[in-house]
């Protein structure tokens, strides 16, 4: 193992010793009861299998395995629409293996793509913790020996995993749906969006473009948070190897779903290979997830989610750990928005299996881990193949990149550093996704232009007020203020300004996520404006130095002048409408960005 990697891993373990020990003790205590149904009264159990057939009732009354299905299915969200058929496949697989599967519960599944720039986006991040609670409710009936989680998109997979970790004495597997087939090329989509932002085409042309991009069941094909989730589940050992980017509706997808259901059923306390979730999600698994994020240039949302997931498992990681890992983890993938390829092209070029193999060969992953597939992460350098028509087996994946424009060998990476960097200075701490930003745009010194909303910034752009070198500051967008929405309505106008030759950057206490593109953006800034963060003292015209090479983020104001300034008062509130009033308790309770922006793990400053 690389010496720096070992140092960081040891530091995380030491920092987490007390909380991890307490978590493991809870899980061991929960697992000592054996099959959960044995503690149920006859009345409890009768309610639990009242709707089952005669054979399933007999199995559940005895000692047969019962697997919970927790699903994010809905038929509005393309990534989750394929899950409609998964429960029947899982039930068939369990029946063939002599067990039972019950649909334990559903969780919310909102789409950030639908809510971008809309009031509903202010519920998005909080939906993660809501999903965690819904997963807990689904598993709370004490009927189950293992669980299958069906989820793909942005807050759904992290939320399901956080909820499942409260039931970490159960074996758990995640079975994805896969990406839609490739549509309109990503460069063309970006070009048309910028034309619309400049007013050169109308809404009809834009809608035609978007419809050709997002056109069928499956995950959106760019490498945003949804597909970064799939990467994370493979790097952390909760998927079957090579399953992330297999298209829905294919024979391979069906075979992987069937196999995964039977595999997790074999890992319960009723069998010989008991493998509870808490033994899979360890400090090593969390570190591997961070490494995967850096090596693939994944979503900045995971600088929040990984921290929250880790806390749910009693593990403490922070942005310093991520930044130090970024210094030794090279960027091995170019997938849109970090390149022209989509995830289908990435998968065909070697995909996650190739990258895992390269990192393992370089000592840049923790291989001493338990996974749902076996022991050791080297299994995840393998790829699935269909045999005998409908069965799946794994063979060694490619040892060479099949497209050097998309995936690179460790010896010749796209960059020596990972795709995410820590920014800090007198404005606080934030992260920046550097993997999609050209070298000449990484350092900017320019005057601030301050806004409180995306709409205000767009109005200024349309009025021609931003056609200059500037650093756009959008504040009161943090988790306490309004739930920390993604701010992608800013991306097209900022891209236009950059294309016109202006030096531009963004600073915000909100989010931009996995679709962050060519404009440098210091996001997740904390303390946030509503929490007396320095961003609340910035005034129009203040010079700001934004250096994504050194990690410097400073406002260049005379210290005595800065000390005299008071916090700006919030001019715009959005506490009601589109369900936002239902989440007021979340806004009051939520932790800072670097603490995972969670209502479960609040740390007082």
From TrEMBL:
PROSITE patterns, alphabetized: ILVD_EDD_1, ILVD_EDD_2
The alphabetized UniProt keywords are: 4Fe-4S, Carbohydrate metabolism, Gluconate utilization, Iron, Iron-sulfur, Lyase, Metal-binding
State which pathway it belongs to.
Carbohydrate metabolism; Entner-Doudoroff pathway
| InterPro entries in UniProt | 6-phosphgluc_deHydtase, Dihydro-acid_dehy_C, DiOHA_6PGluconate_deHydtase_CS, ILV_EDD_C, ILV_EDD_N, IlvD/EDD_N
Entries under SUPFAM superfamilies matching the protein: IlvD/EDD N-terminal domain-like, LeuD/IlvD-like
Question: Which coenzymes or cofactors are required?
Answer: [4Fe-4S] cluster
Q: What class of enzyme is it?
A: lyase
Which Gene3D superfamilies does the record associate with it?
Answer: IlvD/EDD C-terminal domain-like (3.50.30.80)
NCBIfam families with a match to the protein in the record: edd (TIGR01196)
Query: Which family does this protein fall into?
Result: Belongs to the IlvD/Edd family.
This protein's name? Phosphogluconate dehydratase
């Amino acid at each position: 193992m690389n010496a720096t990697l070992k140092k960081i891993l040891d530091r995380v373990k030491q920092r987490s010793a007390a909380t991890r020990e307490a978590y493991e003790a809870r899980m061991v205590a929960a697992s000592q009861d054996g099959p959960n149904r044995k503690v149920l009264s006859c009345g409890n159990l009768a309610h639990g299998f009242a709707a089952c057939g005669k054979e399933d009732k007999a199995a559940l009354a005895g000692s047969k395995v019962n697997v919970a299905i927790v699903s994010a299915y809905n038929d509005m969200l393309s990534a989750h629409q394929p899950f409609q058929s998964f429960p029947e496949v899982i039930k068939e697989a369990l029946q063939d293996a002599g067990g039972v599967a019950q649909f334990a519960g559903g969780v919310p599944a909102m789409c950030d793509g639908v809510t971008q720039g809309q009031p509903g986006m202010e519920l998005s991040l909080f939906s993660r913790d809501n999903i965690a609670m819904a997963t807990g409710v689904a598993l709370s009936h004490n009927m189950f020996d293992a669980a299958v989680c069906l989820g793909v998109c942005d807050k759904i997979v992290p939320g399901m995993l956080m909820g499942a970790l409260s039931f970490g004495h159960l074996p758990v597997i995640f079975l994805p749906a896969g990406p839609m087939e490739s549509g309109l090329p990503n460069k063309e989509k970006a070009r048309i969006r910028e034309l619309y932002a400049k007013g050169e085409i109308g809404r009809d042309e834009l809608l035609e473009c978007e419809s050709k991009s997002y056109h069928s069941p499956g995950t959106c094909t760019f490498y945003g948070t949804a597909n970064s989730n799939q990467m994370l589940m493979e790097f952390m050992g909760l998927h079957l190897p090579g399953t992330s980017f297999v298209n829905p509706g294919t024979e391979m997808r069906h075979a992987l779903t069937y196999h995964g259901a039977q595999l997790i059923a074999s890992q319960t306390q009723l069998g010989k290979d008991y493998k509870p979730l808490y033994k899979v999600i360890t400090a090593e698994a969390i570190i591997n997830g961070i490494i995967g994020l850096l090596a693939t240039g994944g979503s900045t949302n995971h600088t929040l989610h990984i921290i929250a997931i880790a806390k749910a498992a009693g593990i403490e990681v922070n942005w310093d750990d991520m930044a130090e890992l970024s210094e030794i983890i090279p960027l091995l993938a170019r997938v849109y928005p970090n390149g022209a390829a989509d995830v289908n092209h990435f998968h065909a070029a070697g995909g996650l299996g190739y990258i895992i193999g390269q990192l393992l060969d370089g000592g840049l992953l923790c291989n001493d881990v338990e996974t749902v597939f076996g022991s050791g992460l080297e299994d995840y350098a393998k790829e699935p193949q269909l045999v005998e028509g409908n069965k799946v087996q794994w063979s060694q994946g490619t040892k060479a990149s099949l497209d050097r424009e998309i995936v690179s060998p460790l010896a010749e990476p796209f960059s020596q550093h990972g795709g995410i960097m820590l920014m800090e200075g007198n404005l606080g701490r934030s992260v920046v996704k550097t993997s999609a930003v050209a070298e000449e745009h990484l350092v900017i010194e320019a005057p601030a232009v301050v806004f409180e909303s995306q709409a205000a910034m767009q109005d200024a752009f349309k009025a021609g007020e931003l056609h200059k070198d500037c650093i756009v500051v959008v504040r009161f967008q943090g988790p306490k203020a309004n739930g920390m929405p993604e701010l992608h309505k800013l991306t097209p106008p900022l891209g236009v300004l950059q294309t016109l030759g202006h030096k531009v950057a963004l600073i915000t206490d909100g989010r931009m996520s996995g679709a962050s593109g060519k404009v440098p953006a210091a996001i997740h800034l904390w303390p946030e404006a509503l929490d007396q963060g320095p961003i609340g003292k910035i005034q129009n015209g203040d010079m700001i130095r934004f250096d994504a090479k050194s990690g410097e983020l400073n406002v260049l104001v005379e210290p005595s002048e800065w000390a005299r300034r008071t916090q700006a008062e919030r001019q715009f509130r959005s506490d009601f409408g589109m369900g936002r009033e239902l989440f007021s308790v979340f806004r009051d309770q939520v932790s800072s960005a670097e603490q995972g922006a969670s209502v479960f793990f609040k740390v007082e400053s």
